Protein: SDR family NAD(P)-dependent oxidoreductase
Amino acid sequence: MAQLNSLDAKVVWITGASSGLGEALAKECALQGAEVVLTARRFDELEKVRVGLLNPDQHISICADITDEAQVRHAYEQVLQKKGRIDWLINNAGLSQRALIADTSMQTERAIMEVDYFSQVFLTKTVLPTFLAQKSGRIAFVSSVAGLLGTQYRASYSAAKAAIHMWANSLRAEVANEGVDVSVIFPGFVKTNVSFNALNGEGKPQGHQDEAIENGLEPDIFAQTVVSALLKGEEYIVIGGRKEKMGVLVSRLSPTTLYKMIRKMKVK
Structure:
C-alpha cells in the first residue's frame, strides 16, 4: 500500500467527470495540486468543469463514450501524448437503476452491466501497461454500498457494482508486486443527479430525485474523504451515513440479519 504525501504534479484521470461524484473528485484533486484529465461524453460539459477547477490551464478535457472501445483507446493515446504518464485512474462513470427485477428488460440489464462493469474493465486493461511500465500508480473503482448489500429496485446495478469490486480484488492480487495499487470506493447516498439518470425497467431515465439521495452526503465532503483515503493508500473505502455503514458491518457479521433488514427497508 503506497502512500502519497500529496498529489502535486500527479496526473489523475477521472471518468464520468462532467457532473456528480466525478466533478467533485476533480475539484478536490485539483485543490491538492493534481493535473486532472476529465473524461465524459460531452466536451462542453467537461469544459465547464475544467474552467471551474483550481489552475484550469493544467487540466485537460478528453471526450469519450467509455462503452466505445475505439473512443477509449483514442482517449488513452491523447492522455499519454499530452501528459506522458498517469498516476491515478479513477473509474467513476456509472449508471444506476430504479426498477423491480420483474419489470427490467434484458436490454436494460445489459446496458447497466456494460457501463458499470465491462467499460471499467476495458479502460483499466487499456491503461494497465502504462502503470506496469512505470512500476507505480493507483487504480480506483467507484463501486457502491449497493454492491455490498443488494437492495430492491437496484438488482442489475448492485450486481454490476459487486462484479467490479471482485474484479478489482483479483487485479490487486495480480499487480501487488508491480508497484501498482488498487482501491475500491463504496459510496452510500451522496447528493448528485444519479437518481435522475437511473434507468427504469424500460431503460429510460426515471427523471426524478430519490428522497434518500436528497438527504445524502454533500459531494465535496465525499470527495475530500475519498482523496484523503486514497492518499493514505487505503484499499477498501466505505463512505456514507450511519445507516449505510451499519448495513456494511452487518453484512460481514451476519448476512441473515442483513437480509431481514433489507426486506423492511424503504429503498425507493
Observations:
- Residues 151 and 262 are 6 Å apart (CA to CA).
- The first helix runs from residue 20 to 31.
- DSSP finds eleven helices and seven strands in the chain.
- The beta strands are 11-15, 35-40, 60-63, 88-91, 138-142, 181-187, 236-239.
